[in-house]
Structure formats: structure tokens, C-alpha cells
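Q&A log
Question type: sequence-to-structure
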Amino acid sequence: MPSESPAEDVLPSLPTVQKAIIQDSKGIPLLVQNVALPSLRPNTVLVKTDVVALNPSDYKMSSKFPSQGSVVGMDFAGAIVRIGSGVANVRSDLKIGDLICGVIHGSNPNERENGSFAEYLLAAADLVIKISNKMRLEEAATLGVALATDSLALRESLGITASPEMPADKPFDVLVYGESTACGTMAIQLLKPTAPDAAMAIRTHTKNCLCHALGCITDAESVACYYAALGRTGGRYSCLELCPESLQTRKAVKADFVLGLDIFGLEIKLDQGYGRPASRRKYEAGVRWFKVFQKLLDEGKLRTHPVRVQEGGFEGILWGL
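Response status: OK
Response body:
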């Protein structure tokens, strides 16, 4: 009887183990040679990793939440080598060999075998972006964490209903602090705000009516700026790291900690205030946003964060961490 999927018969075989950077018992990253490949699951794609990007979270996860044996890394770009069942229903445009980028939950105590600092990784098919031939892999690898985080921060946390596809009828102001970060670079392009650089200047510019602030940096000086800049009646402040209550100085300001890993909709088993229950709503919101991101990139309306390329493969990653 002929095979129903002839293309699968000619796919090259894959190794059973791979090189990867994992956490040791103290959370310190180290390179090992014999990590098992993550198992293909429904609605996922197995990716041969070509390029990764380093994020502060890669270091912070290892130092703050040691998880022995967990593969490190979140941002990636690479080629699809296997496609799981059900993918055709959620991403019929994906095929073997496609170059894609995205984000996965590295340093995950609940799924230790999957992280981007490895030769192969597993990604949710509906949370990846196809890379055009106009974009370098090094650039594409910077998109995943930033876009996932911003997609949750802008709509789910700040409550901004306007989007690049459905702009607001009337312009409004949003403060993006830390605009030189990857999340800040992406947020500015998605919002196109006017952002003065001091709290009083912001309040003057916005006529004391600013009600949205996205903080890509969470330290005492930065948080003081957000709280001083928001208007007299208060507003919403989204922080990308847990903000100490001692810095939350105005009851009229609703502070919300945004964790980009919420985009997968799965329970996040971390302590110290970073744990999250599963959320189907946030997952579905992320899927909708990633469709918007794909369109913006295809149309050349979204540029990547500036990159610094570090050579050296896995050793270069360890040096960067």
C-alpha cells in the first residue's frame, strides 16, 4: 500500500542526542554533548537552530530559578525539520525547510528538554513567524521575546484595543520607557507614540492626561518617572519585571507585571511571585498578534532591533551569558 505522506519517507534521519547549554545544579549554564531532542507533539514544529539571541531573562532565569538539566534560551531562528500532527489546521502555510523565528520557554522546570540554546528545539506552530529573504537570520532571532512580551503588555495589560491593523480613531499618548531595549524598539513601532524624556515634560505634553505607561526597565529611578508622568487621575503601568510594592507610590496607578512566557497559555511553575496559572485567553491573544506581526514583517512595516553578532557558536553563547 503506498504511503499517505510520501514526503515523510525521504526526510533525512535526525540524531537522538544533541549539543545544548543546560543549567547545572546551581543554575550555572554549561555545554553538554548528549541532551535528548525534544519530542514532537501536536501543533508543534521541530526546528534546526541556526541563530539565537541572548536576553536578560536567559541569565536571570538561571540565576533566580535554578533548574538542573533545563535547556537555556528563548529567542531563535532556524529551519523546520519536522511538523507535528494538527499543524496543517493552525498554520497551513508551514512546510519542511521553511525558515522561521519565534520564542520558546527555555530554562523551564516543567519542560527541561526544550530551550533555544541547542541544536534542535520545539516551537508552537501558531506562535512562529516565517522569515522572508529580505531579513537576515541574525535580525529575525531578536523578534520572538520582544514581540511576545509586547503583545501581552499593550492589549492584555495596558488595555489598548487599537492595533496596527485597526488604529484608534483619535491619537492618544503612551509612555514607553526603555525604548532602546528590544521590547521598547518593537513597542514604539507598534504604537508610534510621542515620548518626551522627563516626567514633567511628559505631563506637560500630555496635558496631565497620560494613562498608559510601558516600563521596559524596572528600577527605582525608572518607576519614579512612570508614576510621576502618569496623569492626575492615574492610569495603567505595565512592568516587564516584578516591581517592588515600595516603589508603587500612587494608588490611582494600576501596576501589572507582564511575563512574556504567558503567551503559551501554560502554567508557569516559578516561585518568588513569577508563577502564573494557565491562561487560554493570553494564548489566543498571542496567536492573533503573531498573525499581525507576520503581516507587518511581510509588508516591511516592522524593523528588527539592532543586533550585535557574537561569533563562536555555543562557546560564544556562554561568553555572552
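Response note: The first strand starts at residue 17 and ends at 23.
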